[in-house]
């Protein structure tokens, strides 16, 4: 009986530790990203890989500066703000600027000013 209660205790402790960790993992569902696509006023064609690439730039920029509003400001108006351009500069992605501009144009539906 003692061994059984030890195993039960260990199992419960493991569950109590693992469940909060699993629940706290970030969720990258297409549906939530697609709704974000419309929330930031994108009027072009939703392309998951392009959207994830541009969103990743904003995530990396946030990770660099840890400024709470930076991620949303970077994505605002479908990646066409000065914050997005500033993130490209800060992340030293200026050599990729032309391809990034075509990505923004595709999902924005208009020529971006970068």
Structure, explained:
With 114 residues, this protein is mainly alpha-helical. It has a domain at 30-108: Crustacean CHH/MIH/GIH neurohormone (Orthogonal Bundle). It is 72% helix and 0% strand. It contains 6 helices and no strands. The chain has helices spanning 2-24, 30-39, 48-65, 70-79, 82-90, 97-108. Helix 3 (48-65) packs antiparallel against helix 4, helix 3 (48-65) packs across helix 5 (82-90) and helix 4 crosses helix 5 (82-90). The model is unreliable at 25-32 (pLDDT under 50).
Task: State the main characteristics.
Crustacean CHH/MIH/GIH neurohormone, 114 residues, elongated, 72% helix, mainly alpha
What CATH architecture label of the domain at 30-108 applies? Orthogonal Bundle
Unreliable spans:
25-32
Order of helices and strands: HHHHHH
Largest sheet: none
The secondary-structure class comes to mainly alpha
Subunit arrangement of the protein = single chain
Please state the overall shape, judged from the principal axes of the Cα atoms. Answer: elongated
Distance between the termini: 70 Å
CATH superfamily of the domain at 30-108: Crustacean CHH/MIH/GIH neurohormone
Can you count the beta strands? 0
Average per-residue pLDDT, rounded, comes to 82
What is the fold named in CATH at topology level of the domain at 30-108? Crustacean CHH/MIH/GIH neurohormone
Report the CATH C-level class of the domain at 30-108. Mainly Alpha
């Amino acid at each position: 009986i003692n061994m059984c209660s030890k195993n039960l205790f260990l199992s419960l402790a493991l569950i109590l530790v693992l469940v909060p960790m699993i629940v706290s993992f970030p969720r990258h569902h297409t549906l939530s990203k697609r709704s974000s696509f419309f929330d930031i006023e994108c009027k072009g064609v939703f392309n998951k890989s392009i959207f994830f690439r541009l969103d990743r730039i904003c995530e990396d920029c946030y990770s660099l500066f840890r400024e709470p509003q930076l991620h949303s400001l970077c994505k605002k108006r479908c990646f066409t703000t000065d914050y997005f351009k500033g993130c490209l500069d800060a992340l030293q992605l200026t050599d990729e600027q032309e391809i990034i501009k075509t990505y923004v144009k595709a999902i924005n539906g208009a020529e971006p000013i970068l």
